[in-house]
From TrEMBL, chains A, B:
Keywords: DNA-binding, Transcription, Transcription regulation. It comes from the Bacteria. The lineage of its organism: Bacteria, Bacillati, Actinomycetota, Actinomycetes, Streptosporangiales. Coiled coil: none annotated. GO terms for molecular function: DNA binding; DNA-binding transcription factor activity. One of its GO terms (cellular component) is protein-DNA complex. This is LysR family transcriptional regulator. Pfam families: HTH_1 (PF00126), LysR_substrate (PF03466). It comes from Nonomuraea zeae.
DNA sequence: GGTGCTTACGCAGCACGTAATAATC
DNA sequence: GATTATTACGTGCTGCGTAAGCACC
């Protein structure tokens, strides 16, 4: 179970071809063939069916393990190196689309005011990408958002040993078209909206709602992006409802979308700060300021 | 970051000696020295101070990663092999001390009645041990218990990719000495008992309570065992209070210990079934019966 | 001076590339 | 017959053990 062989196996499975994997990894086809043979001999199992090259059931099982395993290996390396590296002034901050809310944007401004030498670049990605970037040292700090019960941690995908701490929790509202029959209510229960049509978005995945409340929440439009502007416009046009942090709704009073407070279950929009080793220095200072 | 070198590094750090690690691993001192040198050269960091042999800060950081990493590697191997192995009739069941409650004991009896050929051995250990046993294939199934909010998963230590599913949830009671002023109450709020003295036990760790409720919960006696008989006797003798599943309290009415229902926060004693790959066979059948 | 880590050196095994072979489309 | 995996074989490198060296107790 040499990680080197595991990486080769993953590449072959991804390409569905020994030669393509060889090209990617800078080996000859022959070397790849020998590596796969070695891995199969080690486990005593056939991992790939040839022609076409596809994982066998055992190979598929191994594939599920291999990715996270290799990520953790890279993450461990990055973490140890980062802990020992000299402090950096050029910090990379990775965040999901809704994570940089007004509070955190203000804290970031505060940190930059306090440390004039600090340079920050901000990178947006999905949750798994944020986790992987922080784990592998591509980002110094990460901010991930999600829907959770108050003071409950987010259920982030396991990307290795790193620290995740909640930094902000904000009220969630149901985003409804202004003309919606329920748009005038002071508050709503999620269960009352189980029969409505909902947007399926990364910001508010419907299976999460079903987890929390139960059946229902039919998918309307499936939006595979993460910018709030589009989502709001989709809601306004009646493609479906969604949950948003109150700060994400535009122009409080007028406008084509209404936000109605969520009375039950009690849910919040939670943002967590992710980081690995933080030796004293700008990164640790920024983490402190962002934590409030 | 060859896992082989990582394992050597862990052994050296554990023994505080190159030669002792060499003896354990079946190498010469020289080989160990070269392996550590290779690892240090790879990372560009000194991982161990020599004479005495102790981890440097960077080495300590690496040690935190190395254990889980190596566990995951063994777990992945065990999981793939298990998925491909022929079905076994001799099953090993690993459980924490409070996990085999009346419901699960009955389900286990049911499974044995349904499958006369089934042989089961039951092994008790702490949570981390249970997780590791299941991950590495030393046990076919695991049962772990803990305190959680209703239908919330337990926060089990990460021991790699395996399935954890709740199987039972039972009411929790506060165990009080019969003479305790509050022993007559119909129910109690945990916050009202924050000023009392509590047993510190693996079954009911006080930091978990502080997590859920807040400050307080002074530690009385620290009991580092996990048998309920002793715990009950310690409570009766006034060493401190503790939370137990209602089924763990002896003889409902009389006796030196009273159990009082927990009104708030709503907490349950939850048991989760852990397993890796489960190909059709006795192990999968047993898992199905245990799940109810 | 003894214990214990490091360095030097030689050898064996292994993993790669080249090239020939076999198998599938 | 073209493409692609496997097998055969030669080579260079890596990693081990033996043994000498060196440092700290």
């Amino acid at each position: 179970m040499d990680p080197h062989l595991l990486a080769t196996f993953v590449a072959v499975a991804r390409h569905g071809s020994f030669s393509a994997a060889a090209a990617e990894l800078g080996y000859t086809q022959s070397a790849i063939s020998q590596q796969i043979a070695a891995l199969e001999a080690d486990l005593g199992l056939v991992l790939l069916s040839r022609r076409p090259v596809e994982p066998t059931p055992a190979g598929a099982r191994l594939l599920e393990h291999a990715g996270p395993l290799l990520l953790r290996l890279r993450a461990a390396r990055a973490d140890v190196l980062r802990a020992a590296a000299p402090p950096r002034h050029r910090l990379r901050l990775a965040a999901t689309a809704l994570a940089v809310n007004p509070v955190l944007a203000a804290r970031l401004a505060l940190a930059r005011a306090e440390q004039p030498r600090l340079e920050v670049s901000l990178h947006i990605g999905d949750r798994a990408r944020i986790g992987a970037m922080v784990a592998e040292g591509e980002a110094d700090l990460g901010l991930a958002d999600g829907i959770a019960a108050p003071s409950d941690p987010l259920r982030l995908p396991d990307t290795g040993p790193m620290t995740a701490a909640g930094v902000t929790e904000a009220a969630l509202v149901v985003a409804l078209p202004a003309g919606h029959p329920l748009a005038g209510r002071a508050s709503l229960r999620l269960a009352d909206l189980a029969d409505a049509r909902w947007l399926q978005t990364p910001l508010c995945p419907l299976e999460r709602l079903r987890d929390l409340v139960g059946e229902g929440f039919r998918a309307g439009l499936d939006y595979q992006g993460d910018d709030v502007y589009t989502v709001v416009n989709l809601v306004a046009a009646g493609h479906g409802l969604t949950l948003l942090p109150v700060s994400a709704l535009p122009g409080a009073s007028a406008g084509p979308v209404r936000g109605v407070a969520l009375a039950f279950p009690r849910l919040v929009h939670r943002v967590e700060l992710l980081h690995g080793a933080l030796p004293p220095g700008p990164a640790a200072d920024l983490a402190r300021v962002l934590s409030g």
